[in-house]
What we know:
- The complex is a heterodimer.
- Chain A is an alpha+beta fold.
- Chain A folds into four domains: about 5-90 and about 175-185, no CATH class; about 95-170, CATH 2.40.50.100; about 210-255 and about 265-275, no CATH class; about 315-525, Chloramphenicol acetyltransferase-like domain (Chloramphenicol Acetyltransferase).
- Chain A is built from 14 helices and 20 strands.
- By secondary structure, chain B is of the alpha+beta class.
- Chain B has 15 helices and 16 strands.
- Chains A and B meet through strand 6, strand 7 and helix 2 of A and helix 2 and strand 10 of B.
- Strand 7 of chain A pairs parallel with strand 10 of chain B, so a sheet runs across the interface.
Amino acid sequence: MRRQGLVCHLGLQRHLFTVGRDWCRKFIRVNMASAxxxxxxSFRQHKLFYLKSRLQYNAVAxxxxxxxxxxxxxxxxxxxxxxxxxxxxxxxxxVPFKLSDIGEGITEVTVKEWYVKEGDKVAQFDPICExxxxxxxxxITSRYDGLISKLHYAVDEMAKVGTPLVDIEVSGSVSEAxxxxxxxxxxxxxGEREESxxxxxxxxxxxxxxxxxxxxxxxxxxxxxxxGTGRDGRILKEDMLRHIESLSSSKSTPKPSQVPQQQAKxxxxxxxxxQPSPSTKxxxxxxxxxxxxxxxxxxxxxxxxxxxxxxxxxxxxxxFGYCDEIDMTSMAALRHSLKENPMVKERGIKLSFMPFxxxxxxxxxxxxxxxxxxxxxxxxxxxxxxxxxxxxAMDTSxxxxxxxxxxxxxxxxxxxxxxxxRLQELGNKGSLGATDLTGGxxxxxxxxxxxxxxxxxxxxxxxVAIGAIGRxxxxxxxxxxxxxxxxxxxxxxxxxxxxxxxxxxxxxxSNLWKAYLENPSTMILDxx
Amino acid sequence: xxxxxxxxxxxxxxQVKITRLGNMNSYYPVSIIATRSIADDVSKKLVFISKSxxxxxxxxxxxxxxxxxxxxxxxLLFMWVNTPCVVIGRxxxxxxxxxxxxxxxxxxxxxxxxxxxxxxxxxxxNLNCSFFTSRARYNRKYNLExxxxxxxxxxxxxxxxxxxxxxxLNSYKVSGTASKLGHxxxxxxxxxxxxxxxxxxxxxxxxxxxxxxxxxxxxxxSPTLNLKACCPEISVDEVIHILGCYYIKNSPLxxxxxxxxxPSEENFPGLNLIxxxxxxxxxxxxxxxxxxxxxxxxxxxxxIKIQVLNGKIERLHFQDVTIGKQDALRLNTLLVNQxxxxxxxxxxxNSSVFGTMGEDRxxxxxxxxxxxxLTSV
Lengths: 528, 377
């Protein structure tokens, strides 16, 4: 007598079926909360019930050993056979939980202790194991709820970072693996405000078919006002027609006469009751059918999402702009001469203008510390930051990122150049760390390297000022003698937070920065 | 910026004498540019100094902070000093690392901490610093630079950081480091040898070779030096003060002052439970990773292999036929599944089993077992 039983998950109702002479009452609850389709089947002792089932549910069979006095499968009602299959228990998807990066460039760790074993149930954030890597003992916690199906390493084995550590059978659908928290934190956290701001997205995000769009544009109906009943809120043709009907019923005036032929019949069908028989015939306009391109929508992820988040935060800062022009002739000559200098050559660093801009900004910030400050969200406290962490905008294939050079006040121009080179290399590879991306106190954006003169840069919260540097152009200018000379002119546009910075401070700071760059020997005077 | 710093240098409890503050206005050397700014983001920096000298209380408090504090917007420097004790790492073997006999003779406590790393000896001349941050802000190098910077600026001692993240003075080790990372919080703690008794240190950590084979974390031994040897006017209290000031240096508006904390149940509910769990045999000896050792029998030709799991003798492998079945059975009943503790020590010393089996043959085994059972708990 085989003591095996089959249990069928058929929904919340108790569907009973024959399993032979002996019955048992076994009420099994499997994941009641997560899936409405699963669960519960019980079969009562000494009673026969016919199976009534809902065909749309998937039958998930759970073979279990009905030991003891419980029944055995002998005969299943013919109706039921369609819905059973004696497959192995499955909870859900088997997801390999990879060993995430521990940091500090560690590639291998030793598994020291397991807190779970195969077959154990785990919840999210339950500790799974303890790994050790040269003095750091790390507790690895689970990312998912589910059942541990396989442990890939034994105690004292070396586990490689990035390889699967355990396999977890996840109950229900796997939620999107939470993006490394560090990255999300870099984008200025908005929290609850996100939802309300997202409503300001442009209209093409509404899901519809091209024909419905055409209808809407012809009838001058805003798609946002139409209630969609299709999948994911899609607006179907029926919805459009219903909307039109509701519009025409609310208005007493008849529809405008410019109705294209394709939709004319549909409209007439719906509105014949309201519309009076037209005395004037509407001219039938024949529009040739033009193939319409398909709209493409994709979720905003990664750098774009970070940029969107930080920009919406920046929007709440009252900006004011201040622009100026800088004569870069002496600076260009200095740079040219330094390029030939053996001291620069042997260090092997490409000396562009940017290290000079950054260092000059830092020197000017010494005199105007208010520009290197940070304001909290409610604008109640201002923190004057001690270190000048000057960020510079970098355009990579992934998007706009703003790494910063730390403590420029204690770096020389050469050090800044070295640091810039390092950050640029990392940025091109896409491997900038959180250290480099956070903690900035002031930003310079060299949009001029791509092009442009004047700009209106957006301040990166929680900073209070930003500068955009334009292109260096050779233009005619008057010198002190009144002669027309060629000068390398560069425009700079500053934006500052008007809640804490006034125009005069910004202007004076800009003048000082300009003075340093127009006459580089003055930088030596303020060298520290 | 300097005015803010000076005006906020208040101490809530004036129990630490304020001596010259040294050159606090020096700029930082270039080597730490990459590591300084993470903790600058933190809006709140706390400094706690423990009033207790009991290793178990301090370890329990450290664990309490790790499990119960939220370090999202704050970070904490917790400093503590203990009476003489030895602390082994989470996955270490006390029999391999510590001389248990000397330990009991000098009434030095033995404890196991929660973080990895090697074995250290603490006494009143040793300062322990635990840097608590959120997981994202964990940065060992920054913490070590804080310590080096503070001591360097005040006492002009040339401290450097080795590649293994130990602090070195003239290539002698003055500090050991270990850390624990969890899902939300992380801490990094290190010792600082200010004025430790070197003879006791060597006595405690000087182990006779027992031939233990294990996968536990080995300690990397290095020659050590006290800071006091190079700078006679240094003391633990002064280091506490200077380090604390240096730590909160960059948050002038958020300086809370130093807090002296007493690890007690009223202040930290749940602390007693943690303290008790740290003082049990189960934690100190029972958490040892499995190990084995071979013991020669008689004339060195045959061996008994003792396998220990979780601090208990799991089984005995008799790698020789000369040991009779009776003897083997007697040894098994006496030893297998027994915890290696003082109870077993008493049992073995009082038992006549070895006598009946032939003392000469099993003298080495007897000796080894007695050494293994010299546990303090």
